[in-house]
Amino acid sequence: MKRVAFHTIGCKLNQFETEFMREQFEKRGWSVVPFEDIADVYVINTCTVTSKADSKSRQSIRQAKRRNPSSLVVAVGCYPQVYSEDLLKLEADIIAGNKEKLKVVELVDEAIKNRNKIVKIEPLDGLFHPMAIEKFSGYSRAFVKIQDGCDKRCTYCVVWMARGPSRSAPVDFILDEVKRLVSSGYEEIVLTGTNIGDYGKKEGLTLITLLERLSNVEGLKKIRLSSIEPVDVTDDFIGFVRNNPKICRHLHIPVQSVSDRILSLMGRDYNEKFLRKLFEKIFTEIPDVGVGVDIIVGFPTETEEDFNKTFKFIEDYPIYYMHIFSYSSRPKSKAFNFRPKVRPDIIRKRWEMLNELKSEKKREFVSKFVGKTLMGTVESRPFNDTYWSAISENYIQLLVKEDLSDKAGRVLSFKGICSIEDKLIVELVEG
Predict the structure, then answer these.
(1) What stretches in the chain show pLDDT beneath 70?
(2) What is the DSSP code (8-state) at residue 402?
(3) Which residues contact 63 (CB under 8 A, 6 or more apart)?
(4) How many CB atoms lie within 10 A of CB 345?
(5) Within the chain, what is the greatest distance between any pair of CA atoms?
(6) Which letter does DSSP use for residue 270 in this model?
């Protein structure tokens, strides 16, 4: 059989789209092998959210070609969509954008038949092109793509160029997809997209509209949101999450900064007063909610005062975890030309300060659940030789001294016994 290997860089949306491409190859008789193995075709699903992601994408292309010089290497996705000129110098045989993920197999067939290099990057239109999958290989939770693209123009970002305008999947398509995955044994699904809080706005719908419909799917026990913008966490949304037991008590909110001046330069549509009112309401209204945030340190012109406002905000609330990004200067973004730049050593110091705070916040949050009962989805692989792992609905990693291989993907009840750093040792209550 012909062998194909995949490597995914970046977000949950990319992970979903890799699964779609994997199934397309399998349906045509290809054997899928690990990326570390010898393959006839290597597909690298790239990312360009930071310069580090660009570097990982280029490195993966080189690794694939070194592993099998006669292989056909495909670089697809966000990096080619925005910076195709960077990839022309590398050994990729096919350079394709995000729209081409729908027909990667056809591009591979063409390259093999004609023995030619292919560069195909179509402009992204305002249409949602459905991608249906039947399973999610190697995962206990299934991802479902409900939205793509972004209409925001944040000055540090090129994702809106890579993903195109905001567009949403039809409700009935999503319902059919979720029902199919539930019938395959998945009890938790993760809704993903570029900006899922934007879901349905152009069609006169809301994310709550979709969540209400999904909540009625028989056999579906938990619905998790991948990420949602601060302005989309409305009072109605908070109330819906609080009152619907199927919605995971887990919100990932890209805050980025808490300095009004920096937020304005970033092109973000909120300020510190809005954020404080929002977070106070979230933590008051939704018991035991696990809240994660994205923070960018070292945005051009960021002062100690700007940074300290962000640091103090994180200190003030029971935030569970942070994704901390050192500012990455992206060519073609508006902020690329902003001056003065923050010195790398200062960025590093601020990153380390936040990272230390992150560790403290995680330990504090997890320790609160000793003696409490939590719902968690059993992972498909053991954590180590001693523990099996599950992910709680508020996103804590649960470790249990019991072989749960026959319960992978199931949503079960666990009781916290003790916490070790940012993990909770538990015992199985139900199952």
Answers:
(1) 431
(2) S
(3) none
(4) 8
(5) 64
(6) -
| pLDDT tens string 39-82 | 999 999 999 999 999 999 999 999 999 999 999 999 999 999 99
The reported pTM is: 0.95
Sheet holding 250-256, edge to edge: 250-256, 290-297, 321-326
Q: Which domains occur in the chain, in start order?
A: 3-120 (3.40.50.12160), 126-248 (3.30.750.210), 250-367 (3.30.750.200), 373-428 (2.40.50)
Q: What angle do CA 305, 310, 313 make, to 5 degrees?
A: 120
Strands (E), 261-358: 290-297, 321-326
Beta-carbon-side half-sphere exposure of residue 144 (alpha carbons within 13 Å)? 30
End-to-end CA distance of the chain: 40
Q: Phi, psi (5° rounding) for residue 198?
A: -85, 0
Alpha helices in 35-139 (DSSP H): 51-67, 78-87, 104-114
Long-range own/partner contacts, residues 203-210 (CB < 8 A, 24 or more apart):
203/168, 205/168, 205/171, 207/232, 207/237, 208/236, 208/237, 208/240, 209/171, 210/146, 210/171, 210/174
Tokens at 171, concatenated: 């409700």
